[in-house]
Write a structure and sequence with these properties.
Length: about 450
C-alpha cells in the first residue's frame, strides 16, 4: 500500500474540448491500426458520423437530419466528444467507438457540490468488440479528468458488469415501481395546492428551476443545463422522440400559486379494456412534501388507468406509506449512479460528515489515482480536512468501495461483508452516513 498519494491540482484550467487526446491510450489503439481522437465540435459532418455511431452502439434507429442538427446545436462548450476510427472499414469517417464527457456538479452530503467528469455515450461497434477499445477509452477518460483537475468521474450504466474494473462503485441505487391503482386508496396528507396541465415549452422553463432546487438538496444529483440535451430528453422535446406526442405535463402550484413540482407521464391504452390503461411516469419532481403528495395522488387517481409504472424512483420514496395497500406498490431495486474517486482529499473534503473524529483510510487502487493512506479529520460542524499520512490505517478500502461510500448511502459494513472494506467499517458508517438518501433522477 503506497503512503500518501496524488494531490489535488485545482480547478479546471482548460476547456475539455481543447485538451489533447490521452497519448497512452492513443498509442495502445494505434498499435492495432486504430486512431483515437477528439472530435472537432464545429464540424457538423464529423458530428453527424459520430452521432450515428453512438446511436448504432445503443441499437437506436438511424437518426434523422433534424435530430442530428438539434443534438449538435445543443452541445455545450464543456462537452468533449471522443471517437476511435478504423481506416480499413468501408465507412472510415464513421467512428467504431465513441464517448462524450463533460464536467458536471455532483451534490454530496451537506448540500455541497463537487466537480465530476460525467462519462456517457460509451460504445464500441459490434464489429470491434472485445479487443480492448472500451478499456483504452475509459482509462483515457480517467486520465483526462485528472488532467482537468476533476476529483471524480461519474456515470450511469447499461450493464452493471462493466465499470467496477476501472474503480467505479455503485453510490446511489434507484427503484422501479409498479402500482396496481385499483388496490389503493390515498391515505397520505391532503395537498392544499393545485395541479395544472402545462405546455411542455412552459415546463421547460418552470420545471428546470424546480429541478435545480431539488438537485442542491439531494446527494447524487448532477447539474444539467436548461439548454442541454438531458433536460430536452426528459421533456420529450428531442426531434425523433415518437413517445413525446403522448407525454402530458402537470405542475403543482402551492396555495400561494408558486410552482413546487411537476410530473411528466404517458398513458398507453388497453384496446381490449378501456378501464385497464397503463400510465408510465417519466418524471415526478417535487421540491416540497406537499407537492410530492399532491402529484402522486393526482397520478394514482387518473380515470381509466389501472397500472402505474415509474422508473428511477428514490429508494426512500414514502409513497407506500401514503396508500391503503402496501403490497399494491411493487418495487425492484437497481444500481444507478456509479462514482469513481480520482482525488481523495478533494472528493472526501467536499462533503460533510455525520460524526466528528479521525479515521485513517488506506485506498487500494490498481489504477493508482486514489491510492494512498489518508487521514480524514472531521470537526464538530461536520466539515473535514483530508491529508496524506504515513500511519497505520484504521480501514482499508478498494477504490470502487470508496466510490460507493462517498455519498453516504451504501453501508461500509455491507462492503466489509463482501470483502472490499477491511477494518473499522462500523466507524466508517457512523461518519459517512448521509441524512438524505443519495438519489439520481436521470440517466446520462
Ligand atoms: C460494453 C462495450 C462498450 C464494451 O466494449 P469492448 O471494446 O468490447 O470492451 P473491451 O474489449 O475493452 O473490454 C474491457 C473489459 O471489459 C470486459 N467487458 C466488456 N464487455 C463486457 C460485458 N458486456 N460484460 C462484462 N464484461 C465486459 C472485458 O472482458 C474486458 O475485461 P478485462 O479488461 O478486465 O479483462 C461494448 O460491448 C458496447 O458498446 N456495448 C453496447 C453499448 C453499451 O452497453 N455501452 C456501455 C454504456 S454504459
Amino acid at each position: 500500500m503506497p503512503v500518501g498519494g496524488r494531490r489535488y491540482v485545482g480547478p479546471v484550467t482548460t476547456t475539455p474540448a481543447d485538451l489533447q487526446i490521452d497519448e497512452t491510450s492513443r498509442a495502445v489503439l494505434a498499435a492495432g491500426g486504430l486512431r483515437l481522437d477528439v472530435l472537432d465540435h464545429t464540424d457538423a459532418a464529423a458530428y453527424a458520423e459520430w452521432f450515428r455511431a453512438e446511436t448504432r452502439g445503443f441499437h437506436g434507429a438511424e437518426p434523422s437530419a433534424a435530430v442530428t442538427e438539434q443534438q449538435h446545436s445543443r452541445l455545450l462548450d464543456g462537452h468533449r466528444l471522443v471517437g476511435v476510427w478504423d481506416p480499413t472499414t468501408p465507412a472510415p469517417d464513421r467512428p467504431v467507438a465513441t464517448t462524450i464527457c463533460w464536467p458536471a456538479d455532483l451534490t454530496v452530503p451537506g448540500r455541497r457540490t463537487v466537480s465530476a467528469w460525467a462519462i456517457s455515450g460509451v460504445t464500441v461497434a459490434p464489429t470491434h468488440r472485445r479487443r480492448g477499445i472500451a478499456r483504452a477509452l475509459m482509462e483515457a477518460e480517467l486520465r483526462t479528468a485528472v488532467e482537468l483537475g476533476l476529483p471524480l468521474a461519474v456515470l450511469t450504466v447499461s450493464e452493471s458488469t462493466l465499470y467496477g474494473r476501472y474503480g467505479f462503485g455503485v453510490a446511489a441505487l434507484a427503484r422501479d415501481v409498479k402500482i396496481s391503482t385499483r388496490r389503493v386508496r390515498w391515505t397520505g396528507p391532503a395537498a392544499p395546492g393545485r395541479i395544472h396541465f402545462v405546455p411542455t415549452e412552459q415546463l421547460a422553463v418552470d420545471g428546470h428551476e424546480i429541478v435545480e432546487r431539488v438537485r442542491r438538496e439531494t446527494p447524487g444529483q448532477i447539474s444539467y443545463d436548461r439548454e442541454g440535451t438531458l433536460w430536452l430528453r426528459q421533456l420529450g422535446l428531442s426531434a425523433d422522440d415518437d413517445n413525446a406526442k403522448k407525454l402530458r405535463c402537470v405542475r403543482y402550484d402551492d396555495s400561494g400559486g408558486t410552482p413546487q413540482g411537476f410530473a411528466i407521464y404517458r398513458v398507453t391504452e388497453n384496446e381490449q379494456d378501456f378501464a385497464e390503461h397503463e400510465l408510465t411516469l417519466h418524471a415526478l419532481v417535487a421540491a416540497t412534501p406537499e407537492a410530492y403528495a399532491g402529484l402522486w395522488r393526482f397520478v394514482l387517481e387518473i380515470d381509466l388507468v389501472s397500472t402505474v409504472t415509474a422508473h428511477l424512483r428514490p429508494v426512500d420514496e414514502p409513497l407506500r406509506w401514503m396508500v391503503s395497500d402496501f403490497r399494491a406498490v411493487r418495487v425492484t431495486e437497481v444500481d444507478h449512479l456509479w462514482v469513481r474517486v480520482l482525488d481523495v482529499p478533494a472528493a472526501l473534503g467536499a462533503r460533510t460528515y455525520a460524526a466528528a473524529g479521525r479515521i485513517v483510510i488506506a485506498v487500494d487502487d490498481p489504477q493508482d489515482h486514489a491510492a494512498g493512506t489518508w487521514a480524514l479529520d472531521v470537526g464538530a460542524a461536520g466539515t473535514a480536512t483530508v491529508s496524506a499520512v504515513d500511519e497505520t490505517a484504521d480501514v482499508i478500502v478498494t477504490a470502487s468501495a470508496l466510490g460507493s461510500l462517498l455519498l453516504g448511502g451504501v453501508r461500509a459494513t455491507a462492503l466489509a461483508a463482501a470483502g472490499s472494506v477491511h477494518g473499522d467499517a462500523a466507524r466508517l458508517d457512523e461518519m459517512f452516513r448521509s441524512p438524505v438518501e443519495p438519489y439520481l433522477s436521470i440517466w446520462f
